[in-house]
């Protein structure tokens, strides 16, 4: 490939040759020299007979580096910036091709067609140079529904170029215009990381991803649920799986079979054209989990809409994060929580865990369920983290009755829509009398008074408490006065350490 050819291609792609030269005089280090040695240090070196010749200020230090090191430096830049260096000199004209990655977003280009043209020409250059492309990250937003398709051919190319990291995000694409994943991806033996967002995965009789360890499937459409099940189970070393469902993805029952999976994240987003209230009208979807090595389960969905079909009982070693869905917070009359039986079944399945994180929307769901019948007993639960809306604070004693052996609790007080300064007389659950050793209370703005009331409740009722931490962001309270007020309480524990942290980041103990 001749120098003029490469130069013309880059000029055509970017269209501002003169500004490139100005930008990269500084960015490429053309005028950067190594720092000079201080006179004192230099004199000591001379005394030892050591002489060091420093480069002049006009030396091009970076261009004197080996290609491998320059390639590594370029890999830290977005692809568009790395390609710009090709106009610096003859030596730099194709150095960017030694970077085995492309990281591009269509919104960084004047229009969608310019983006497609740039990626096509970049891939052509990789093909001509016979270069490997190990990493491809693309964020694509089409301007019109009839914009040209491109994803299939790009993925097909990298699948044959030893790609090990593929991240493809298509933004706001209607279901009927989703681009299809090529069959070559299903047989990519080099792939280690895969993220697909809003694409179509058609069926394939043969799937083999022998090295894939991390997979994120977000708002895609699948051939059917049997294909998705096969796709997951055909990854023999898969460790981290994240799936965000949509109601029109052709999957009624999600089946996860993996003997190596350690982390599973499940979520849900409404499909195209669905307003938020339609979310609550969706049918109950099934979930089947067969993953004996699972350590982390992050569930960002409405548990009252997810029916676990297997005999799966969560292992005590699994950390469960019940995030719920953000839409729930707009409903407080129970309309969103019509399936108490399904929700209770879900809680029963996870009742053996030792580590549990729950969101404020899950707290509302628990409140609704407890009006019908108590929660199952979480006898093995040791650590609890909960986000609690201020209006739901009075649920805590009843909730803690389901955690008789709780050792640690972290409460994050949120949404101060209603300020409650007085907390009624509460019962004392078993965990405060027998096992609770650590309490941390985090207060949002305007929740400081409630936080103090909670601190008082735990201080006066926790027999074996070893540490209590109170954090707040507003300027309503002063650290020193809070510490004095806490010390003045009638503490049940005689060995508790107190820590208060206000907005000034001043910690008092």
From TrEMBL:
Q: Which domain of life is it from?
A: Eukaryota
Recorded hits in InterPro entries, A to Z, give:
F-box-like_dom_sf, F-box_AtFBL13-like, F-box_dom, FBD, FBL13/AtMIF1-like, LRR_dom_sf, LRR_FXL15/At3g58940/PEG3-like
Which stretch is the leader sequence? none
Q: Name one Pfam family in it.
A: FBD
Question: Can you give the residue ranges of the FBD domain?
Answer: 430-501
Protein's recorded name: FBD-associated F-box protein At5g44490-like isoform X1
Which species expresses this protein natively?
Raphanus sativus (Radish)
Source taxonomy? Eukaryota, Viridiplantae, Streptophyta, Embryophyta, Tracheophyta
**What is the gene called?**
LOC108819121
